[in-house]
Amino acid sequence: MAVKVTAKYIGGQQVELEHGPSGGRILTDLPVDSGGKGRAFSPTDLLASSLASCILTVMAGVAERNGIEFKGAAIEIEKHMQESPRRISKFTGTIALPAGLDEKQREKLLACVKACPVGRSLHPDIKVEFKIKAEEVV
After folding, report:
1. Most buried residue, 66, 77, 123, 134, by CB count within 10 Å?
2. Would strands 25-29 and 14-19 be described as parallel, antiparallel, or unpaired?
3. What's residue 135's pLDDT?
4. What angle, rounded to 10 degrees, do the helices at 103-110 and 43-65 form?
5. Peptide bond connecting 85 to the previous residue in cis, omega within 30 degrees of 0
6. Taking a C-beta distance cutoff of 8 angstroms, is the pair 34, 45 a contact?
7. To the nearest whole number, what is the mean pLDDT of the chain?
8. Are 100 and 69 in contact (CB under 8 A)?
């Protein structure tokens, strides 16, 4: 299934994205480290956001199918850039799962990190490293 996204330069180093099916809109901005103002997500910030959102979405589906209470799960992600060539070199972060999961449930949910389509679409040179927080309510 194809999904249309329209990108329009609106000036001031900002681009407006429109999601075809829903009409939802997002602004992006040139980041400060590239000479911009950093007033909104940069395109590479959106990739970090896509990875975190994808992992949580896949986890939520697995949790729902397996009767696992998933509310409160969270990912904190950091994007690391390299200079030459200018690109994302790695993503690091922390995954916090809800309290009370048994080992089997945790394993099922953590397998989703590798099953996420966004992560599978990344170039293999981009490292993805997550720490798992001890079970806690987030």
Report:
1. 77
2. antiparallel
3. 57
4. 140
5. yes
6. no
7. 94
8. yes
Q: Extract the runs of DSSP E, i.e. beta strands, from the chain.
A: 5-11, 14-19, 25-29, 74-82, 87-96, 127-132
Residues near 134 by beta carbon (within 8 Å), at least 6 away in sequence: none
Listed by start position, the domains of the chain span 5-34, 43-132
Do 67 and 105 touch, CB atoms closer than 8 A?
no
CATH code, 43-132 = 3.30.300.20
pLDDT at 137: 44
DSSP conformational letter for 32 = G
* Number of residues that this document lists for the chain: 138
Q: What is the pLDDT of residue 133?
A: 84
**Of 118, 121, 101, 120, residue with least CA distance to 110:** 101
Report the distance separating Cα 79 and Cα 51, nearest Å: 10
Low-confidence ranges of the chain (pLDDT < 70): 134-138
pLDDT at position 134, please?
62
Burial of 107: CB neighbours in 10 Å, binned 0-12, 13-18, 19+ = exposed
Helix count and strand count (H, E) for the chain: 4, 6
